[in-house]
Amino acid sequence: MTQVTRAKNGEISAEMRLAAVNEGVSAEYIRDKVATGRIVIPANVNHSKLEAVAFGQGLKTKVNANFGTSEDCDQIENELEKLKAAVEAGADAVMDLSTGDKIKETREAILNNSKLPVGTVPIYQAAVETVKSGRGIIEMEVEELFGVIADQAEEGVDFITVHCGLTLETLRHLAAEGRVTDIVSRGGSFMAAWMLHNDQENPLFEYYDRLLEICYKNDVTLSLGDALRPGSLADATDRAQIHELLVLGELVDRAREADVQVMVEGPGHVPYDQIETNIKLQKELCKEAPFYVLGPLVTDIAAGYDHITAAIGGTAAAAAGADFLCYVTPAEHIGLPDIQDVREGVIACKIAAHAADIAKGVKGAKERDNKMARARKKLDWEKQIELALAPEKLRESRKEHNQSLKAEDACTMCGSYCAMKIVDKQLK
Fold it and tell me: What is the pTM of this model?
């Protein structure tokens, strides 16, 4: 039985109660929105260490951190350190995107050490195992792909990215579009190559009911991937992207009918002025299903600083209604992120999410800022550090920049000419 089934039956699960407490809303509100698909609680029945988190309408904007091994960097210990860094920085969920030799072992280690919801992209494992067997990705068997999905569900993965909306018809739109960057989704490229070579429909679309059965059994949340997300501003909001979104809207309806939790993934690289339009389109076509966006990145020329690029777009997206932001690290477009990249990516994304929550009036969002303002007025540095999104960063930075301080409550920017002190003295 899934969270959706329980909610439709009028039951408030332990996960719904926990979400209500964490969000500062009523448990009945959570139950109602889960029943109608406006909120999801990725909580696989097999993930024993999980502390459930809710994503969706009226809730705080959540942040996801990606990491995982590659064929060039295949150390499980490093990924566990990245998990730790992501949790400490405030991530609400993580995704294991491993493509190294030890995919299963890495995922198992992350699941055993994560209290956060864990997501994966199952086609990565299916593709890697096909290649390891001496075949090309285009020779992957349908049964192998569904076998991986079933195995990951049994292991405890809470949500899976599956590119079900990439159909042969959608690929025809892509070919006619004449994109600059074609397909930048790795999972999407695997599936597209398989479809084009075999001249067969996407099995995740063709056998979608089978996918729903696996997800229902283990209460795995579907994250319907955007295989045709734009990889450059030039390709944003084109016919290929919108056609895939139309298909995803229909698949959302089918998942809800099957009592399977579902959210939808979105772009990508999007000019700032098109972000709100993208969010409104998804919300309309997918009937308010929670929206999970990568960034969006608002320029293509900020390599090395793409965590900032994504934070700008993420604020706009979440303020317009996106529910879940996937972080982008400074290493985006460069290489595999290290531990510091993970930390910087999460913090930048948390800033974007919080700024958006203030803009859309999420309950309690502005209270922390008001407390910070009062702490600054009092020159209470310990309170400021406590309230900061990155407290250790603030503590270390203050120490580094204020070694020559004469007064402990001031900073070297103003010293004795502190505006707060001067005005406070005269007002008193």
Answer: 0.95
